[in-house]
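Thread amino acids onto this structure.
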């Protein structure tokens, strides 16, 4: 009986153990690839965030310029109306 169990153990070790070893090696590679992808995603997120921050700043600046232009237009229209009235 012990001999049969030892034989089965030996067969399992010879057939399954190498496969498990290969799977563990491949899994380690997959984990490394995932870490690399996570780093790349983080880098891209940071790049996008920086770009959006710059875009927000530009839009704020343009909004200020537009507000100033509208105020100048209103004042000019008021002056033109006064000149036309005299």
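Threaded sequence (86 positions):
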């Amino acid at each position: 009986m012990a001999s049969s169990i030892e034989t089965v153990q030996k067969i399992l070790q010879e057939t399954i153990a190498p496969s498990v070893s290969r799977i563990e090696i491949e899994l380690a590679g997959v984990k490394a690839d995932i870490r690399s992808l996570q780093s790349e995603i983080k880098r891209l997120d940071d790049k996008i965030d920086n770009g959006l921050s710059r875009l927000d700043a530009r839009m704020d600046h343009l909004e200020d310029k537009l507000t100033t232009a509208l105020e100048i237009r209103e004042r000019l229209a008021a002056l033109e109306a006064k000149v036309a009235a005299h």
